[in-house]
Amino acid sequence: MSPSVGAPRALADVYGRGVAVSARPALEAAVPASRHRTTRDALSARPVAIAADTPLICSAGGTDPALLAQLRDGGLPVGTDLREFRTEAEFAARVTEARLDGLLLAMEYPLPTSLCPDEDAVKTARLVGLLNNKASIGTLVSPRFQARRGVVSRADLAEAAPAGESWVLKAATDDAHGASLDVYLHRAGERVVLPLFADVLDEFVVEEYLDLLRNWGVQLYVGTDAVARLLAVTEQRVDETGVYVGGLFGTVTQPPADLLAECVAVTQRAADLGYRGLCSLDCARTADGRLVMLDLNFRITGGSVPLLALQSVRPDALDGPAESVKLVVATPLADLLAELRPALAAGGLLVTSGHDTARTDDRARQSTLQLLVYGDDPDDVSARRRALEAKVRR
To answer: CB–CB of 220/263 below 8 Å?
Structure first.
């Protein structure tokens, strides 16, 4: 169950040639156009650092010259065929142009078939949506590794999620909106304040609230040979609401072999259905000793990009401690990079992606930068990561 020899370093190592990648969720019909626009665009730019010669349809916010220069200085295989868009219409145009160029589209989130027909896709929108549906754990994962959960309709939601009990609410939809439908955690006795998606969807997953001792992100991929392979195991850092805020890499506590074997088996089941690409399966050990699979993320994630980046420039660092961190500020991306230049020059810090909304028609003004802190001493790595986070809280 050790990570694969010859692990991928760039997108073509996973998807092969003749493929264009789009890592942007489609516009949600049920959610206001302005909501989560910034997140969707930033997701599209996340693979820029590992795109190499694979055509990548990405937001112009991720092609800031200062950002690209920093990525190249870090030795990363930066995309040489970046097909940027600044508006919703330009995004659709870039997808159409890729198809007209004879490229198959590897969509990380489902796009309408009117925009990308099945015959032009590496994996169909229906398959991508099905695999990322929060309800799919029930059909893909062995019952032994499932938390107690149920799929309920909107009409039955109030009865299935009472205020006096603890539970987790997840969206059950094939649309795979991507960060715009957050998981909602409720603790017994607190006031129930249902999230926006409770008003716009018809089905939901209500899952038991678990006391977690370990929270892993098992990173895998399926290449052109349709074989599921383990890439690495990461651990996840979450905030007080349970939202992912970064990962731990390298010197992590390994999951039991039977849980890893189930992760590979789940990914192979997806591969047999036609899935190709990277994926991250969120797993945990609970306080009462159970092993559970919490979420299936069949797409490029915040855990996979740093791993491919390190594999490209510092494969020796994969065995040492490393932590990812995301900085979000209301200043230009170039200014944030300039402020970080001394820390970057000191070493042990790698920029893995970024985005600046000022380069798009998004009316919000926000810059996002994702970095990986690595070294030999885990305490030093954590301290440097916290110092970076402190910069944006000043």
So the answer is: yes
